[in-house]
Design goal:
six-stranded mixed sheet, globular, 494 residues, 17 helices, alpha/beta, 22 strands, single chain, 26% strand
């Protein structure tokens, strides 16, 4: 590594009365992987949006190769060799993978028409070079979260980027896809590409990064070489402060009556012959690799997608659940791992998101009791420790971790007894993750039944009394957490 490729100097940005960045300085060397870490709301994504042209700073400057530059739009950033992989998919669902990869830069024939043969050929060649497999003719909207993330990475790398920003690139990837991503990052670094790696997963930061810069409350705490002199505990103290101590959740002592039973549930192409039971006071883990069928299984139980065969019993009674409304009426709540598209209405205030499923509770003769609704929202936001300017703030303006807390608050208001939680801690910081672990344990202690889907094996083994492992749509193992290891789970998942 030699020389500074990219530098921000004294960058500040405010949204209304909230200061997101306060004189943040950051430097990226040529051929370096530089991690940008901090709690949700620390300002990481805001800084990278400014560097990539999606936002304008209120003050401060950006320098490339030592010279100040203006980055007024994402297109201008691309022209300067700055490319970004966003945390949440920006793909056009109706366009194919190939069209998304080369959107705005599609090859043309001599007649000025799109050269479709070359387009698909180039897309296939790029994905092969990246060691990823995707059907380039498939609409992007048909891909799962991991497939969309792969397409995003391919699109970012399809330009000759000098600076590549990766904002939580591993959030939707399984272990095998993650290893391939790391191989790609190493190849890019060796070729001289400079990479900013934004992540909450410190184990990844230490594996792939040369240095790490910590942001807290919109300010730069410090930049540290990851050469063995610092460890995770050191970085955590700088992210969350010296007074924070992670507490292990108090798990329920005993399980109660059976609340949910699934027998032979099947959805062609997604999962087959799945059976299990779930009791009150129990947290049941559902482990597996990306694409194993876990999300589809949860959605089928919740009535969000249909199933071809099998039965679902609620408190011992056969239940015909044909829609999410049916499921909610029977005391089932579902947390989607895709909080942007399925968990929240981003254009609505956070207060209305919290009460959306239960608005009838605050209406009388067709009139909405705003006072009652507001008091309820305030109590839920306080319970979840949501960092926001107030209940009227738009959900889109929250950090990822606070959006997840709002999505969970929405479920708690439904008074459900069965919770299907799909990757509840994906893309959030260590403090927020600890709080959500405490909440999940509290639900179980209060008698609720929790099905916890997670790609983080330590999370599954520490929170759950039992673990079901899925592979290619089938249950391949049933483990007691106290007797299982990470290797046991991985072996059954592959």
């Amino acid at each position: 590594m030699s020389g500074t490729m990219l530098e921000t100097r004294e960058i500040s940005k405010a949204f209304g009365g909230t200061r997101a960045l306060d004189r943040v300085s950051f430097s990226l060397r040529k051929g370096e992987v530089h991690a940008l870490i901090g709690e949700n709301g620390a300002g990481k994504s805001t800084l990278m949006k400014i560097v990539s042209g999606a936002l304008k700073p209120d003050s401060g400057t950006i320098h490339l190769h030592g010279s100040p530059i203006d980055v007024d739009s994402p297109h201008q950033a691309l022209r300067r060799g700055i490319s970004i992989v966003h945390q949440h998919s920006g793909l056009v669902p109706s366009l194919t993978v190939a069209e998304n990869i080369f959107l705005g830069r599609m090859p043309s024939t001599k007649l000025g028409l799109v050269d479709w043969e070359k387009l698909y050929r180039d897309a296939i060649a790029l994905l092969r070079r990246l060691d990823f497999e995707l059907d380039v003719h498939r609409p992007a909207g048909d891909l799962d979260a991991a497939g969309q993330q792969i397409a995003e990475i391919a699109r970012a790398l399809s330009v000759s980027a000098q600076v590549l920003i990766m904002d939580e690139p591993s959030a939707a990837l399984g272990s095998s896809e993650l290893e391939r991503l790391f191989r790609i990052i190493r190849k890019l670094r060796e070729a001289g590409t400079s990479i900013v790696y934004v992540s909450h997963r410190l184990e990844e930061v230490f594996r792939i990064s040369d240095r790490a810069t910590v942001l807290k409350d919109g300010r730069t705490v410090g930049t540290y070489a990851l050469d063995g002199e610092v460890d995770s505990a050191f970085l955590i103290r700088r992210m969350v402060g010296p007074g924070w101590v992670e507490r292990s959740p108090e798990l329920p002592a005993r399980r109660g009556d059976e609340l949910l039973r699934v027998e032979g549930l099947t959805r062609e192409g997604a999962f087959e012959d799945v059976s299990f039971e779930l009791h009150g006071g129990e947290i049941l883990g559902l482990a597996g690799l990306v694409g194993a069928g876990r999300t589809d299984l949860c959605k089928a139980i919740f009535g969000a997608v249909s199933h071809d065969d099998g039965k679902v019993y609620i408190e011992g009674k056969l239940s015909q659940i044909e829609s999410p409304g049916d499921a909610m009426a029977r005391g089932i709540a579902f947390l989607s791992k895709d909080r942007h598209n399925e968990g929240l209405i981003l254009s609505h205030p956070i207060g209305r998101n919290v009460t959306l499923p239960i608005l009838r509770r605050f209406t009388y003769r067709g009139l909405l009791n705003l006072g009652g609704e507001n008091r309820f929202v305030d109590s839920m936001l306080a319970r979840m420790n949501v960092r926001a300017t107030g209940r009227r703030q738009l959900a889109a303006d929250l950090s990822g971790g606070n959006q997840q807390k709002v999505a969970l608050a929405k479920l708690l208001g439904t008074r459900a007894r069965i919770f299907l939680l799909d990757e509840p801690t994906v893309g959030i910081d260590i403090a927020a993750k600890s709080q959500i672990h405490q909440l999940v344990a509290e639900l179980a202690r209060d008698g609720a039944a929790v099905l916890l889907v997670s790609s983080e094996i330590p999370e599954i083994l520490s929170l759950c009394s039992r673990v079901l492992v899925m592979s290619k749509g089938r249950i391949t193992g049933h483990l007691r957490s106290q007797d299982a290891t990470g290797e046991d789970v991985l072996q059954l998942a592959t």
